[in-house]
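Field reference: sequence -> structure
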Amino acid sequence: MHAVATSRASLRDAKPVRRRSRATFASVVGELLLTAGVLVLLFVSWQMWIGDLIIGAENNVKGAELSEQWAQVPPPEPPPVVQQGEEAVYEPPLLPHPGDAQVFANMRIPRFGDDYNVHIAGGTTRERTLDRIGIGLYEQSKMPGEVGNFSLAGHRTTWGKPFNRIDKLRLDDAIVVETEVGWYTYRFRNLQYVKPSAGDVLLDVPQMPEVAPSDRFITLTACSPLYSLAERIVAYGVFESFQPRADGPPASLASVEEASPSAEGAR
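Structure field:
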């Protein structure tokens, strides 16, 4: 009897043996997918926000450095003065068309901030111009100050997003193109939303193939809405004046007030 009682007591006091759980194939795959998802989320966050801020700041620094280089070079002779109505103005000098990925100008838009200063280069491929440099010149585009359409493309998200705030432009905002010879000032007129296939916005007179150009336009294009390729947002402007480097920076580069009334965009 004593032996039986002892045996029963031992059974009661014995701790259950836990079986070591084995990781199944499905659980391993699930953990790997979860880790991969977190890494992808971190990369996207970096690319769209943190990386954008860094690249955008670097682009502005590069633009400022080029502006400073031009300022150190003896300025060329100012172009001829012509009569425009009752006002005498400089005839805007025509620049040679740049090669692919060749930087020839800086974009200055006071509405986007006093430090906004982004390179403009030939071509609109992502690999050579838009991702690496900033703003690209369409192949068929006219040059700054030339009669016709000076047309440009830029990212609205990622890679420094130089045209991220294109929808914040206000009527009469200055769009200034700085070059080695001086500054070409355009004034913003209106926004339009079009399909990606709407190449007629790049015509010498935008969307009017039957009209011969007599004015000087600027056209900025970017993807719309944000983080989508569904449409294009287009900003149009008209030429105002050229100021030679010998005369110093134009008044159009002055800071703007954020409270200005917005311009209505056609959709």
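Note: Confidence is low (pLDDT under 50) at residues 259-267.
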